[in-house]
Amino acid sequence: MAGAATFGKRGAKAPTPVRVAARTASVAAEEMPIALSEPAAAASSLSSVETGLPLATVMILLILLIVFAFEVKFSPQHLAGMTIPGGASVAYGAASGNLVFHDGGWWRLFTAPLLHGSFMHLFSNALVFGIIGYMLEPQIGSRWFSALFAIGAIGGSIGSLIFSAPATFTVGASGAIMGVLSGAFICGAFTGEDGPRMRAPLLLGLFIPHIWIARIFGRAMGSGHDGWRMQTWAIILMIPALIPMTMTSHTDYGAHLGGVVTGALCGIVMQANWRSGQRNPDHGNIVGGFAIGWLLIGLLSFALFAQKGDAVDLTPPGMIPDALMPPTLDVGHDRAADMLSKYPNDPRAHLIRAIAFLKQEDLADAEDQLRISLTLKSKLNPEAVEIFEKEVNAFLSITLSYEGKPDQAKAIGAPVCDFAENSLGHDFYELMQKREICPAS
């Protein structure tokens, strides 16, 4: 008690309950984890980071679907599988070297990634995009995710111009999607169990995909389950799109490569702007504005410059126009040679040239032209490819038979005997029977 009285005499006031509470709160605040003491950043605008929903993914898919609906609506021909005729795709905004550089169609670089050649083309792209968008967008936010798509689209357009023949036109969002996949692979190297705040070492994350051994090292170095899962899916979806499966594929591998390169570069820049402790990378408003600008240019170009399909020649570039297509395959040597020189990428020109060689009994050159026509068959409309292939194989079997190759002739011709009988006339079918390609009646 005396001590207490002496203390009071020295003028020191006993701490009030309010002051004790304030001091306690101050100490508690100093001892709080950094993550809790930081202000709640990124609350200025609603995005996938705050909601956990892939909002940009859904919006981009919706835009692609609406654009494709316009393609189908104004298509002058309604083909199986909602396939868009090649000439109509060119009218809507498909891109090629000739159309961009020779015809001044710079706007096609923005419209081509928004277009698709068929419903299956759109569906396959949408499926891949939806998978990776579901995983990646909540990690980096809608603005950086949209920027990845836009930059991948630009890279895809440039890659297509570099690696594709000048007369070959392309459409599709695959280049943009490859950019997103590439960015997801980079992002996966820096996504740990605690979200994007944990970063794996740069070299391990970039050059070792977390599929087998890397899964062990990845977790040890900080890249957690979300990171290696995203890298695994990115690799699974990217690799098949970069390796040509057939020489006649319609796939634009140049666009895929361009998208991968630009997407990876964008992913590295994104990580460089992702400071420790932040929920998503810096400069989101800038890159988000860039993505919106790209999209607006593409949509405005589609609205202002695209023509309805019935306003243009529907024949794809490099193909024989319908008005010039002869009614029969036998057009004579000179005309066949002239047609082939003008349309070397049209498989029908090679078939017509082969018929002219057969008339001259030049079997070797006829065989060469027939085989070339088969390698180019995919340039035809999808619904015409099967019939064309059967027709060429029928002529090829006859050619091989006269060249003294009966086994090859029968192997190629026997599967098309019914087609020859019903579509190529009795005389031709009878010749296949005489050459023992088809069974005798």
Q: What would the keywords be for this entry?
A:
441 residues, mainly alpha, disordered N terminus
Class inferred from helices and paired strands: mainly alpha
**What is the CA–CA distance across the termini?**
128 Å
How many strands, what sense, and barrel or not for the largest sheet?
A: none
- Give the low-pLDDT segments: 1-47, 194-223
Mean pLDDT: 78
Report the count of strand segments: 0
Whole-number radius of gyration? 32 Å
What is the percentage of strand-forming residues? under 5%
Order of helices and strands: HHHHHHHHHHHHHHHHHHHHHHH
* Helix percentage: 55-70%
Count helical runs. 23
Q: Which outline best applies?
A: elongated
How would you characterize the overall build of this protein?
The protein has 441 residues and is mostly helical. It contains 23 helices and no strands.
Question: What topology emerges from the helices and strands here?
Answer:
Layout (H helix, E strand, L loop, with lengths): L1 H8 L7 H15 L2 H4 L10 H4 L3 H19 L12 H7 L4 H6 L5 H4 L7 H22 L1 H22 L10 H15 L13 H6 L5 H9 L3 H18 L10 H20 L11 H22 L27 H10 L4 H13 L3 H13 L6 H21 L3 H8 L3 H7 L2 H9 L7
Helix pairs in contact: 5-9, 5-10, 9-10, 9-11, 9-14, 10-11, 10-15, 10-16, 11-14, 11-15, 17-18, 18-19, 18-20, 19-20, 20-21, 22-23
